[in-house]
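Possible regression after last week's pipeline update?

I re-ran a chain I had predicted before the update to compare outputs. Posting the input and the new output here so someone can diff against the archived version. Not blocking, just want to make sure nothing changed silently.
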Amino acid sequence: MIAHRFFAGLAFGFFLLFAAPVRAQDAQKDVDASGAAAVTEPVRNIKEWNLPHSKAKLAIKGFDPVAYFPEGGGKAEKGSSKLSTEYKGVEYHFTSTEHRGMFLANPDRYEPAHGGWCSWAMITGDKTEPNPKSFIVKDDRLFLFYDGLFGDTKAQWLKTDHDTSAASADAQWKAISGESSRQVPEKEPAKPEKTPGG
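New output (post-update):
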């Protein structure tokens, strides 16, 4: 019995001695040359996005994604094919070169949630064509909604808790596409302006 415990302890000691360095080496495979953790690209599955089945994968029916946001005017505006850009397989149109520049500086910020499908319908996993003029920008994300013969889904969304509805739609979108929702960056506190002589 004592010999059995001795050999079991000895075997465990050898395991710690030799297996721990091997596990550490395996962990190094997830670290790049600078020592920082390797960053993997988020999943992007544009086959599930609300895009036409043509060569040009035009998002939001050609509406300018930046125009929806406060810094772009906060309105749904049709962009121009002469002011376009392609980002990771998706084409976007813009109303101005300034908007195109803002998009190119931070494209993930301006892309629509849930692949451009109606966010209300996405709560139940339905891919419903939205009306690009029916939208909400909240938490630095663009949510689009169906508004037509069968009702105004933006009005329905506004009657619910936004965070709960967004989380439900995000979970369904991940199940459909494999894509995670874009994480909203934490806002930096406003820096006080320097006054002359201060």
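Follow-up from reviewer: compared with the archived run. Residues 112-177 form one domain. Marking as no regression found.
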